[in-house]
Protein backbone atom coordinates (compact mmCIF):
# COMPACT_ATOMS: atom_id res chain seq x y z
CA UNK A 1 0.00 0.00 0.00
CA UNK A 2 1.35 3.45 -0.92
CA UNK A 3 -0.11 6.86 -0.26
CA UNK A 4 0.29 8.17 -3.79
CA UNK A 5 1.25 11.64 -2.55
CA UNK A 6 4.08 13.32 -4.44
CA UNK A 7 6.75 15.63 -3.00
CA UNK A 8 9.02 17.35 -5.50
CA UNK A 9 11.69 20.03 -5.32
CA UNK A 10 12.28 22.14 -8.44
CA UNK A 11 15.22 24.54 -8.87
CA UNK A 12 15.11 25.27 -5.14
CA UNK A 13 17.45 27.88 -3.69
CA UNK A 14 17.49 28.38 0.08
CA UNK A 15 19.54 30.52 2.38
CA UNK A 16 19.86 32.79 5.36
CA UNK A 17 20.70 36.51 5.12
CA UNK A 18 23.45 36.87 2.50
CA UNK A 19 24.38 33.17 2.23
CA UNK A 20 22.86 30.51 0.01
CA UNK A 21 22.82 27.04 1.56
CA UNK A 22 21.00 25.18 -1.22
CA UNK A 23 21.38 26.28 -4.84
CA UNK A 24 19.02 25.27 -7.69
CA UNK A 25 18.23 21.86 -6.25
CA UNK A 26 16.00 19.36 -8.07
CA UNK A 27 14.86 16.11 -6.48
CA UNK A 28 11.88 13.82 -6.06
CA UNK A 29 10.90 11.88 -2.94
CA UNK A 30 9.74 8.35 -3.88
CA UNK A 31 6.16 7.91 -2.61
CA UNK A 32 5.55 5.14 -0.11
CA UNK A 33 9.26 4.69 0.58
CA UNK A 34 11.77 5.60 3.29
CA UNK A 35 14.25 8.23 2.16
CA UNK A 36 17.26 9.45 4.14
CA UNK A 37 19.05 12.73 3.47
CA UNK A 38 22.76 12.52 4.28
CA UNK A 39 25.73 14.82 4.00
CA UNK A 40 28.39 16.65 5.96
CA UNK A 41 27.54 19.13 8.70
CA UNK A 42 26.13 22.45 7.45
CA UNK A 43 25.44 21.08 3.96
CA UNK A 44 21.76 22.07 4.13
CA UNK A 45 20.00 18.86 5.20
CA UNK A 46 17.84 20.48 7.89
CA UNK A 47 17.35 23.60 5.79
CA UNK A 48 15.97 21.47 2.97
CA UNK A 49 13.62 19.61 5.31
CA UNK A 50 12.32 22.90 6.75
CA UNK A 51 11.51 24.18 3.29
CA UNK A 52 9.85 20.93 2.24
CA UNK A 53 7.54 21.27 5.25
CA UNK A 54 6.66 24.92 4.51
CA UNK A 55 8.64 26.42 7.42
CA UNK A 56 11.26 28.14 5.27
CA UNK A 57 10.30 30.06 2.14
CA UNK A 58 12.58 29.58 -0.88
CA UNK A 59 14.61 32.36 -2.42
CA UNK A 60 13.71 30.84 -5.76
CA UNK A 61 12.26 27.60 -7.07
CA UNK A 62 9.48 25.68 -5.39
CA UNK A 63 8.40 22.65 -3.37
CA UNK A 64 5.41 20.81 -4.82
CA UNK A 65 3.08 18.70 -2.69
CA UNK A 66 0.73 16.78 -4.97
CA UNK A 67 1.41 19.36 -7.67
CA UNK A 68 0.67 22.40 -5.50
CA UNK A 69 3.28 24.85 -4.25
CA UNK A 70 3.52 24.00 -0.57
CA UNK A 71 4.34 27.58 0.42
CA UNK A 72 1.09 28.79 -1.14
CA UNK A 73 -1.09 26.19 0.58
CA UNK A 74 -2.97 26.87 3.85
CA UNK A 75 -0.89 25.64 6.81
CA UNK A 76 -3.62 23.32 8.10
CA UNK A 77 -4.08 21.72 4.67
CA UNK A 78 -0.36 20.95 4.56
CA UNK A 79 -0.39 19.63 8.14
CA UNK A 80 -3.15 17.13 7.36
CA UNK A 81 -0.94 15.51 4.73
CA UNK A 82 2.61 16.24 5.84
CA UNK A 83 3.99 15.99 9.38
CA UNK A 84 7.30 17.35 10.62
CA UNK A 85 9.53 16.59 13.60
CA UNK A 86 12.09 19.44 13.62
CA UNK A 87 15.61 19.10 14.95
CA UNK A 88 15.18 20.99 18.24
CA UNK A 89 11.48 21.19 19.11
CA UNK A 90 10.48 23.22 22.16
CA UNK A 91 7.56 22.23 24.41
CA UNK A 92 5.48 24.76 26.35
CA UNK A 93 6.60 24.90 29.99
CA UNK A 94 4.75 22.45 32.22
CA UNK A 95 2.86 20.66 29.43
CA UNK A 96 2.23 16.96 30.04
CA UNK A 97 3.22 14.21 27.67
CA UNK A 98 -0.39 13.33 26.78
CA UNK A 99 -1.23 16.97 26.06
CA UNK A 100 1.83 17.42 23.86
CA UNK A 101 1.13 14.25 21.90
CA UNK A 102 -2.50 15.37 21.60
CA UNK A 103 -1.32 18.48 19.76
CA UNK A 104 -0.55 16.21 16.86
CA UNK A 105 -4.31 16.00 16.34
CA UNK A 106 -4.78 19.78 15.87
CA UNK A 107 -4.60 19.70 12.05
CA UNK A 108 -7.62 17.39 12.08
CA UNK A 109 -9.69 19.63 14.35
CA UNK A 110 -12.22 21.98 12.82
CA UNK A 111 -14.15 24.91 14.26
CA UNK A 112 -16.66 23.69 16.89
CA UNK A 113 -15.44 20.10 16.45
CA UNK A 114 -15.02 18.22 19.71
CA UNK A 115 -12.23 15.82 20.61
CA UNK A 116 -13.26 12.43 19.20
CA UNK A 117 -12.72 8.78 19.93
CA UNK A 118 -10.50 8.68 16.84
CA UNK A 119 -8.30 11.36 18.44
CA UNK A 120 -8.05 9.33 21.65
CA UNK A 121 -7.12 6.23 19.67
CA UNK A 122 -4.45 8.06 17.66
CA UNK A 123 -2.80 9.45 20.81
CA UNK A 124 -2.95 6.12 22.66
CA UNK A 125 -1.51 4.27 19.68
CA UNK A 126 1.33 6.78 19.30
CA UNK A 127 2.21 6.59 23.00
CA UNK A 128 2.20 2.80 22.93
CA UNK A 129 4.26 2.61 19.74
CA UNK A 130 6.99 4.84 21.16
CA UNK A 131 7.03 3.23 24.61
CA UNK A 132 5.92 6.44 26.32
CA UNK A 133 2.45 5.44 27.58
CA UNK A 134 3.71 5.22 31.16
CA UNK A 135 4.91 8.83 30.87
CA UNK A 136 1.53 10.22 29.80
CA UNK A 137 0.91 12.22 32.99
CA UNK A 138 4.50 13.44 33.42
CA UNK A 139 5.59 16.97 32.51
CA UNK A 140 7.73 16.96 29.37
CA UNK A 141 10.38 19.19 30.96
CA UNK A 142 10.95 16.57 33.67
CA UNK A 143 11.99 13.88 31.17
CA UNK A 144 15.43 12.83 30.02
CA UNK A 145 16.60 13.82 26.54
CA UNK A 146 15.86 10.35 25.16
CA UNK A 147 12.40 10.25 26.69
CA UNK A 148 11.57 13.70 25.31
CA UNK A 149 12.70 12.66 21.85
CA UNK A 150 10.40 9.65 21.89
CA UNK A 151 7.50 11.86 23.06
CA UNK A 152 8.07 14.24 20.14
CA UNK A 153 8.07 11.28 17.77
CA UNK A 154 4.79 10.16 19.35
CA UNK A 155 3.30 13.59 18.60
CA UNK A 156 4.36 13.28 14.97
CA UNK A 157 2.84 9.79 14.76
CA UNK A 158 -0.42 10.99 16.36
CA UNK A 159 -0.79 13.44 13.48
CA UNK A 160 -1.35 10.40 11.21
CA UNK A 161 -0.13 12.02 8.04
CA UNK A 162 0.68 10.20 4.82
CA UNK A 163 4.06 11.94 4.60
CA UNK A 164 6.34 12.25 7.61
CA UNK A 165 9.54 14.34 7.72
CA UNK A 166 11.88 13.81 10.68
CA UNK A 167 15.04 15.79 11.33
CA UNK A 168 17.52 13.67 13.30
CA UNK A 169 14.85 11.55 15.06
CA UNK A 170 17.53 9.47 16.81
CA UNK A 171 19.17 12.46 18.54
CA UNK A 172 19.72 11.90 22.30
CA UNK A 173 18.84 8.21 21.97
CA UNK A 174 21.13 5.36 22.94
CA UNK A 175 21.84 2.66 20.37
CA UNK A 176 18.97 0.37 21.38
CA UNK A 177 16.42 3.21 21.23
CA UNK A 178 17.82 4.41 17.90
CA UNK A 179 17.13 0.98 16.45
CA UNK A 180 13.68 0.85 18.08
CA UNK A 181 12.68 4.19 16.57
CA UNK A 182 13.90 3.24 13.10
CA UNK A 183 12.18 -0.16 13.38
CA UNK A 184 9.00 1.70 14.36
CA UNK A 185 9.21 3.95 11.31
CA UNK A 186 9.86 0.91 9.11
CA UNK A 187 6.73 -0.76 10.51
CA UNK A 188 4.74 2.43 9.87
CA UNK A 189 5.93 2.52 6.29
CA UNK A 190 5.15 -1.16 5.76
CA UNK A 191 1.69 -1.14 7.38
CA UNK A 192 0.35 2.21 6.16
CA UNK A 193 2.51 3.03 3.17
CA UNK A 194 3.61 6.25 4.89
CA UNK A 195 6.24 8.16 2.93
CA UNK A 196 9.05 8.91 5.38
CA UNK A 197 11.93 11.34 4.90
CA UNK A 198 14.71 11.35 7.51
CA UNK A 199 17.75 13.49 8.09
CA UNK A 200 20.35 11.16 9.61
CA UNK A 201 24.01 11.66 10.53
CA UNK A 202 24.70 7.95 10.86
CA UNK A 203 25.41 6.84 7.32
CA UNK A 204 25.13 3.15 8.13
CA UNK A 205 21.74 3.49 9.81
CA UNK A 206 20.60 5.54 6.83
CA UNK A 207 21.72 2.82 4.43
CA UNK A 208 20.22 0.01 6.50
CA UNK A 209 16.77 1.53 6.98
CA UNK A 210 16.26 3.45 3.75
CA UNK A 211 14.98 2.51 0.32
CA UNK A 212 16.40 5.74 -1.12
CA UNK A 213 19.38 7.94 -0.22
CA UNK A 214 19.81 11.61 -1.05
CA UNK A 215 23.39 12.85 -0.59
CA UNK A 216 23.94 16.61 -0.47
CA UNK A 217 27.24 18.38 -1.05
CA UNK A 218 28.35 21.87 -2.08
CA UNK A 219 24.82 23.24 -1.96
CA UNK A 220 23.36 20.70 -4.33
CA UNK A 221 22.51 17.09 -5.01
CA UNK A 222 25.58 14.88 -5.22
CA UNK A 223 23.76 11.55 -5.67
CA UNK A 224 20.36 9.93 -5.18
CA UNK A 225 19.11 6.38 -5.47
CA UNK A 226 19.09 3.01 -3.68
CA UNK A 227 21.74 2.64 -0.94
CA UNK A 228 23.49 -0.16 -2.85
CA UNK A 229 24.14 2.19 -5.76
CA UNK A 230 24.72 5.45 -3.90
CA UNK A 231 26.95 4.42 -0.99
CA UNK A 232 30.41 4.00 -2.50
CA UNK A 233 33.96 4.93 -1.41
CA UNK A 234 33.93 7.70 -4.04
CA UNK A 235 30.76 9.20 -2.55
CA UNK A 236 32.11 9.04 1.01
CA UNK A 237 35.31 10.73 -0.15
CA UNK A 238 33.49 13.45 -2.09
CA UNK A 239 30.73 14.19 0.44
CA UNK A 240 32.51 13.57 3.76
CA UNK A 241 36.19 13.97 2.82
CA UNK A 242 37.05 10.57 4.23
CA UNK A 243 38.49 7.31 3.00
CA UNK A 244 36.35 4.23 3.54
CA UNK A 245 35.67 0.68 2.59
CA UNK A 246 32.16 -0.52 1.73
CA UNK A 247 31.18 -4.07 2.58
CA UNK A 248 27.86 -5.89 2.71
CA UNK A 249 26.11 -5.72 6.06
CA UNK A 250 25.71 -9.40 7.07
CA UNK A 251 22.47 -8.60 8.91
CA UNK A 252 20.57 -6.46 6.41
CA UNK A 253 22.33 -7.15 3.13
CA UNK A 254 22.67 -3.37 2.70
CA UNK A 255 26.02 -1.58 2.19
CA UNK A 256 28.03 -0.94 5.34
CA UNK A 257 30.61 1.85 5.44
CA UNK A 258 33.86 1.24 7.33
CA UNK A 259 35.71 4.53 7.90
CA UNK A 260 39.46 4.50 7.42
CA UNK A 261 41.35 7.01 9.54
CA UNK A 262 44.78 8.33 8.63
CA UNK A 263 46.49 5.87 11.00
CA UNK A 264 45.06 2.92 9.06
CA UNK A 265 45.49 4.08 5.48
CA UNK A 266 48.77 2.22 5.12
CA UNK A 267 46.91 -1.06 5.28
CA UNK A 268 44.19 0.00 2.81
CA UNK A 269 43.95 -2.60 0.07
CA UNK A 270 41.85 -1.84 -3.02
UniProtKB/TrEMBL annotation:
GO terms for cellular component: plasma membrane. Keywords: ATP-binding, Cell membrane, Ion transport, Iron, Iron transport, Membrane, Nucleotide-binding, Transport. The lineage of its organism: Bacteria, Bacillati, Actinomycetota, Actinomycetes, Streptosporangiales. PROSITE patterns: ABC_TRANSPORTER_1 (PS00211), ABC_TRANSPORTER_2 (PS50893). It comes from Nocardiopsis metallicus. Residues 7-243 form the ABC transporter domain. GO terms for biological process: iron ion transport. Pfam families: ABC_tran. It is found in: Cell membrane. The keyword Nucleotidyltransferase does not apply. One of its GO terms (molecular function) is ATP binding. This is Iron complex transport system ATP-binding protein.
Amino acid sequence: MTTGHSLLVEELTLGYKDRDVIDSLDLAVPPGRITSIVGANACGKSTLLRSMSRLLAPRSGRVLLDGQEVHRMPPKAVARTLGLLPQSPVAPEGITVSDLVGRGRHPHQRVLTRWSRQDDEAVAEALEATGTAELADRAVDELSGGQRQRVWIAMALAQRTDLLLLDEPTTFLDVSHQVEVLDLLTDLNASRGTTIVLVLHDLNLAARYSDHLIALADGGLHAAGPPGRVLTPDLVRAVFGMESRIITDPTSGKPLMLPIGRHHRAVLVD
